Amino acid sequence: MSGRDNRSHSKACNPRSNSKQFARAPNTGGPRPGEAYAALDLGTNNCRLLIARPSGRDFTVIDAFSRVVKLGEDLTTSGRLSDDAMERTMSALAICAEKLRRRNVRLARSVATEACRRASNGEAFIERVRRETGIALDIISAEEEARLAVLGCHILLESGEGPAVIFDIGGGSTELVLLEPGEKIPQILDWQSVPWGVVSLTDTVGSVNTDGLSSKDARLARYAEMRRVVSDSFEPFANRIAKAAACDDIRLLGTSGTVTTLASLHLELPHYDRKAVDGLIVPSSSMRNISERLSGMSPAERSELPCIGQDRADLVVAGCAILESILDLWPAKRLGVADRGIREGILRSMMAAERQGERSRQSLHDARADSPQQSAAG
How far is the C-alpha of 364 from the C-alpha of 253, rounded, in Å? Predict the structure, then answer.
């Protein structure tokens, strides 16, 4: 399985892109009081929903949902979404559909990512979701996934003038984006998506030759193989951005369960606290130390740690391997942590498009009012 070598030179991360959007109410010239927007992100491991209302140029979350569904379980070996995985996901999506019905949602967009992109029955599953829940999922490209993640979290980038990389470690893929320095609206200079996320990497690097090794050494050997596989996939991107990586004041921001989990361990939190983690700046050396420590622990030992538990006990090691490979190619001294991403990017896209539409309608109204023909007719 090889990485997708992609780039998008001088491409604006424009919130008013031509991405699909799904209206749930007629367009009557801007949102009415109490109306909400919804964003649903169906990934390889998680199903997440966010419902929000506009608040100035930002938004206020009024409802949210997140569940580990493991949609991509065994996808690496079978090439298909399994029956059990689809049933778990349908159960979660039924809850999302009910939330959408109960809220006064003006506009919603629902996206599916790597698992549905890769699965031979991905399109059939999307159709089943539409038929049984009414949710119209859009299977987005890796490029669109990267764009939305950047749009959703770039405001948390550490201040500075140096070049920046934003990454998103998912369940089935990882996206890396190089941004042009000094721009308030992110300009994407280059990007890459590789088919390694916490689920796909865990499933693929199941075992290595551990003859004669102790249990701990066997775990470390497996971790080393994960690091090798990921680094090989990152190599084309690493070569392209090597000059930028050598600059002073380089910045790094990550959005994923991996970075939020490791940040929680860095803070020694007894339980996960989004307010403490979202926007945190952590020394990269601390994240490396935590990654190395976790890689040698048994699943049982990891599951007993706060903020990991049984759901992440095995998958977090693959996330650590991906994170360390990113730190190799982009050796920033500090790492920004974002507990936000694609869903927030979708919401910002929809709201920006609505604001732009309202400005256009107002400009047209003003032009008509000022025209001589209109004045004469009056």
Answer: 40
